[in-house]
Specification:
The chain has helices at 2-11, 34-45, 77-80, 83-96, 98-111, 118-128, 139-153, 168-180, 191-194, 200-206, 215-224, 271-283, 299-308, 326-331, 353-360, 373-376, 391-402, 405-422, 425-440, and strands at 21-27, 50-56, 74-76, 160-164, 184-188, 209-212, 233-235, 258-262, 289-293, 315-319, 335-338, 365-368, 383-386. It is an alpha/beta fold. The model is unreliable at 1-11 (pLDDT under 50).
């Protein structure tokens, strides 16, 4: 436990500790959540004192190695747990704070969903230091593990506990906030809103304030959690760094036009839709290459489709690319396509930052009229929005834009103006920092 205390005391030695904030995350830092790393760095640069707590340590295939130095500032809960230490934490906390301990335990028992095997999950956790997602929902298990988390946080007298994602991270943060009698706030993003989470209504009601990244998200919460006070939900876009994604860095291209797509290789990104549209273009004899950047569980399926449909000379799965190399990918592209879809369980994107990055680089974009994407892209102006899964329409739209340099140029210019107007990360981070300051006053 001394590891965390020493690190975090050094981080905030010059700050007002009475206004320090504990951030609780599931995994940190990971490539698929680079925006959270940037957010924490920028909030600290704006004078906020933030201590970072991660439930799990990223696997090697998840880890964002470009920010590996920030791992030293993180306390990893699950890897730190030992059976005797866990028991000692409960005994000591129940003696020091008996009322809060027993009230929180009773509350966890009352709100626990049936059907979980506590012993199976507990031993799997202690042995493997990992849990399948299906076992991460048990509120009683969360209480057992949240007590040592609360003990680690206790010496800092935090003004606020903030959770990223409304899943297990919020469960732990919610229990720690009850154990320590500290306000809870939540950042709700995408899958954690759209895919049913156990006790989601309770989490939203327990939070003193909630921030989310699209107006669609807020409306979705209003429609599905009708007892939640909408006045405490604030919409703040993530935004992008407009200095980094600068259209002046674009260059004239040689060779066939390049269709670029970026995202985790997961169903909600709609890559099978893109591949089927690419097959139509290839069958029509249109000259193009398509580069898909990202890794994920859908890769074998996508590779098989590319081989079986003779798209090897047209489509390449690039794999993961370091964030700093993305500017060059945008520079070398003609068109950006991300045909997002809604999965069977309701999971979908919010506003993928890669759409805004492409627009900032004056690339015309094609995506889907789904979730918060229409908040960023005005159909027919900065790009084209299609109904999710519309393969022939996507193929026709790509062919039209590949054949229309003037239309691409006009859409690209409007795209840059659009992100300058509503999606500049500097102004949104200033707004987020002010939001946090309001919470700790």
């Amino acid at each position: 436990m001394n590891q965390e205390t020493d690190i975090q005391e050094e981080i905030c030695s010059k700050d007002d500790s009475s206004k320090a904030i504990a951030f609780v995350l599931n995994y940190f830092p990971i490539l698929s959540e680079t925006f959270i790393v940037k957010e924490i760095i920028q909030l600290k640069s704006r004078g906020l004192c933030i201590h970072t707590y991660s439930l799990f340590e990223p696997r090697q295939d998840q880890e964002n190695r470009q920010v590996e130095e920030y791992k030293k500032d993180v306390f990893y809960l699950i890897p730190s747990l030992k059976p005797l230490g866990l028991l000692f934490s409960h005994i000591l906390f129940s003696i020091q704070c008996p009322v809060r301990y027993w009230k929180t335990l009773g509350w966890a028992l009352k709100h626990r969903e049936k059907g979980h095997s506590l012993l199976r999950a507990f031993f799997r956790l202690l042995i493997n230091k990992e849990l399948p997602k299906s076992d991460r929902q048990d509120l009683l298990l969360h209480f057992i593990l949240a007590v040592p988390l609360a003990r680690v946080m206790q010496p800092h007298s935090f003004a606020l506990i903030h959770a990223h994602f409304m899943d297990a991270a919020t469960s732990f943060a919610m229990l720690a906030s009850r154990l320590l009698d500290i306000p809870l706030t939540i950042s709700a993003h995408a899958f954690d809103i759209f895919v049913p989470q156990e006790n989601a209504h309770t989490k939203l009601q327990s939070a003193s304030a909630v921030v989310t990244c699209t107006h669609f998200n807020k409306q979705y919460i209003a429609d599905h959690y009708q007892k939640v006070d909408l006045d405490k939900i604030r919409v703040i876009y993530h935004g992008i760094n407009l200095n980094k994604f600068n259209p002046a860095k674009r260059r004239a291209l040689s060779g066939p036009p390049v269709i670029l797509s970026v995202g985790r290789l997961v169903p909600k990104k709609g890559f099978p839709v893109l591949l089927r549209a690419c097959k139509i273009l290839a069958e029509r004899g249109i000259d193009f290459v398509c580069r898909i950047i990202g890794e994920g569980p859908e890769r074998p399926r996508l590779e098989m489709y590319i081989k079986l449909n003779n798209l090897v000379n047209h489509v390449t799965l690039i794999g993961a690319v370091a964030p700093d190399q993305m500017v060059q990918e945008y520079q070398n592209s003609t068109l950006f396509v991300l045909p997002c879809v809604e999965e069977e369980n309701g999971n979908r994107d919010g506003i993928p930052n890669v759409l805004a990055e492409a627009m900032a680089m004056t690339l015309p974009v094609i995506s889907s009229s789904i979730s918060g994407i229409p908040e960023l892209i005005e159909n027919g102006k900065q790009g084209v929005l299609l109904e999710p899964g519309s393969v022939p329409e996507l193929a026709e739209c790509m062919a039209d834009l590949l054949d229309s340099p003037r239309k691409r140029r006009e859409m690209g210019q409007q795209g840059r103006h659009r992100v300058e107007t509503i999606f500049d990360s500097k102004s949104h981070l200033d707004e987020l920092a002010d939001w946090f300051r309001d919470q700790v006053r």
